[in-house]
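Repro:
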Amino acid sequence: MALALFVFFTGFYLLTASGHLYAVDEETLYRMTESLVEQGTLALPADAWGLVTSEQPANGALYSQYEPGQAIAAIPLYLLGRAVAPLFPPSAHAYIVRFFVSLLGSFVTAATVALLYQLARALDYRAAVALTLAVAYGVATFAWPFARTFFAEPLTAYLLLLEFYGLRRGTEPACPRGWLFVSGVAAGAALLTKPHAALALPFLTLYLLGRTAPPRHAWRTMPRAWPPTVLPWFAGLLVFGVPLLALNAALYGGPLSTGYSTGRLEGLAYPWLKGLYGMTVSSGKGIVWYAPPLFLALLGAHRFYRQHRAEALTCLGIVLAHFAFYCRLTLWNGDWAWGPRYLLIMLPFAVLPAAALLERASQRRVLTSLAAGIIVAGVVVQLLGVLVNPFWDRSRIYDRPTTDAERDALIEARYFSPPASPLAVHTRLLVARVREWRDRVIVPPNTAVLTGGFTTPETDPARALFPRWTTGAGEVTLHSPAGQAALVKFTFFDLRPATQRQGEVVVLVNGTPLPTEAVERDNFSGDGQGWTYQFTVPPTALQSGQAIVTLQSQTWNPHAAGRGELDERVGVYVNNVEVWTAGRPWRVRDRPDLLISRAIGALPAEPAPLYSWFNDEYAFSEPSYADPLHHLVDHWLWYAAVGGLGRTRTLVWSALYGGGAILWLIAGAVLLWRAFGPALVVARRDQRKQSHHRRMSPR
């Protein structure tokens, strides 16, 4: 079952991945991986973008403030990305390598889901209860959105949970003591990944000592009995603990120092009660809203305590320690991220007591319905964090022209004002972008579309549609409800030399030239070059809901005529197209396929523009643009489609990666059915028999 869960959720997380980095924290960890592979050192390139460095460089080199555990774990994925990158254009190499490195969270979170199932089974909960608990954690908490990131919290949470599981298994009478060694190794690896793991270690150590303590009547023999029992755990701790102490001494000046302000606990100045409110129930960062299964854990906490007192106290201690520390932290919110990022480390321990309620819910229909409703609500909440990039909200605040006071007010409202909560903002953003791209693919009424006969605009196509040349017959398709006349106005320049200016520019509606008297012509430049043509398209021409208006002219070659460098045959130079109905202006735009193909622009080659391409919507879409452009969803398939990789390469890449993820998903589903299906069939059969006996028994 654990293997099936790991395979299934790996496929699920790979399929729903974003495939990019979100923050400079992740970029720094990526650079550490890159330095380890390419240079064999943890020293960072001094000229790299997006580094979060220690305040005290060691030996003249630049080092990250983060421990290297996450960077080391990502080395296999970096090597895989480096091997795949040559199959793509050189401009996409930076993206491809980062794509694979960003997938570490998918594997780690899937392993956490499987391990949570194993832990619940080790605590003697039924397979169905453990499975429900694991699935609820995997899809109904903010563990899912964070599986798409390269933050260190998912790996830290997994390693601490592995330590807990190893302590439980290693202290059972019939289990090998090797689990204690594994537990110690996991503890050291957690510290090597994120030093904040030390918040959980005292409680896990007390759990170990409590599980291995001799009976009360034998406490006199405790000094002789205890060391051999706990020695494997301490031996495992030294595997990563000793290198970590040596690394800290070499880089940060002392074995207990870290890159976080050289080991001093700075930034613990936030009002504790305000931080507690913010991290628990506030609309912007309250953990109960971003992890709804915690309601089940709260309801089952007392029952869990009665069943497993030592485990309950350990989980409670870990949860309280994280709240006590992070509620005082100035950056308690862990922004910009979906939910309270720092609390992800203790999330598996906080969710575990829900197993007690789920066990009871299997016997009571009301509790079953409650648990199902809470899990479904959690899935809906996480979808908002998966489909919408949290940094799109950030760019709306930081990249708009606001004063510092206004910006601070917007950020504060994001945490404590329900209308400005990410839950509400992401909902509005998702709806707005679906509508925006729906209108790009499906042309709305009262829209004029440049469907053919126009060259590329002279300026950035994202900024303005005009000016642009026709190729002799510029076609504009009018989309309007039947029976409404449309007033059309062309503003253009006939830049041909006077000696070549032969033949009048003609307007056609549905292929039929308009009579001369039906077109109001104005030579506003007075020299025969600048013109406005204004005319009415009658309702009869729009009976089908569409009408094609063509601006037809003779073609010429500006370069051959000595009028510029453009060496191709073109018609008139269109400065603007305007359409009205009953005095209301229409929207004028390019045809849908052009809008989609050039919607965002190709993937940049350099790290800083690449970061902005994914996370900063105003980097490629200014509010002043004629047609603002935004990413539809925060998903790898969307980025592949609009990244300018080429149609063939995009299709092959999407098929290979997406197909591989789907195969993982199917394999996991098959394994799940083989492990759990027969028991489920038997249980349903017994349930039907019992129901039948109750109906047939005499009253």
